[in-house]
Specification:
The protein has 198 residues and is of the alpha+beta class. It has five helices and eleven strands; from the N terminus they run βββαββαβαββαββαβ. It folds into two domains: 128 residues, 2-Layer Sandwich (Ribosomal Protein S5, domain 2), CATH 3.30.230; 65 residues, Alpha-Beta Plaits (2-Layer Sandwich), CATH 3.30.70.240.
């Protein structure tokens, strides 16, 4: 599979349970630095909240993931949030749930359900996008082949990241992973002097 799903923008949710308020936020993220910044900002903004729990998934397969209970009983907050990310099957997403304690203990089962529902609220409000897994590589070719190369770029739906035109041309291209081998084969048929590098 060379497609995955993420969200287009920030979305929010709210759950109230026995006086406690659970504010939830889903963020599109690309790396750990962005996650760190969002968590820092959220903790400052909601400094009076009892808990700021979260989970994230990164990478096309959601292979990089983490969750935090932030002081709630182990497994009652971060894990249910992460479970909703997996259930909706989105990645490159951070979900943060801010809890204001209402004075009544919810118990383990109540907490798990509340964090699960809060995470789902934010994700249900999000616009889901389908993205492709893309790879980048560089192609070098003689200027006389520029038009032929440009036709192949259009045909294979590649994207030019950077380009340099002299007597010898070079381009860094981004292309859907499933199209990569076919594109490389087609471009080398133009002229055997075309060079490809990662």
């Amino acid at each position: 599979m060379d497609v995955y799903h993420t969200i287009s923008d920030v979305s929010e949710g709210l759950i109230k349970e026995k006086g406690s308020k659970f504010l939830s936020f889903a963020y599109p993220v690309r790396d750990l630095e962005a996650i760190k910044d969002i968590l820092e900002h959220t903790r400052k903004q909601y400094h009076d909240a009892r808990h700021v729990c979260y989970a994230y998934r990164l990478g096309p397969l959601g292979e990089d993931f983490r969750s935090s209970d932030d002081g709630e009983p182990s497994g009652t907050a971060g894990r249910p949030i992460l479970g909703q990310l997996r259930s909706v099957d989105v990645t490159d997403v951070l979900v943060v749930v801010v809890r204001y304690f209402g004075g009544t203990l919810l118990g383990t089962g109540g907490l798990i359900q509340a964090y699960k529902d809060a995470a789902r609220e934010a994700l249900d409000a999000a616009v889901i996008l389908e993205k492709t897994v893309d790879e980048e590589f560089v192609v070098h070719f003689d200027f006389e082949h520029l038009n032929a190369v440009m036709r192949l770029i259009k045909l294979w739906e590649a994207r030019i990241v950077t380009e340099s035109y002299n007597t010898a041309c070079s381009m860094r291209l981004s292309i859907r992973k499933a199209h990569l081998d076919g594109f490389k084969e087609a471009i080398q048929k133009i002229d055997f002097t075309c060079r490809l590098e990662d």
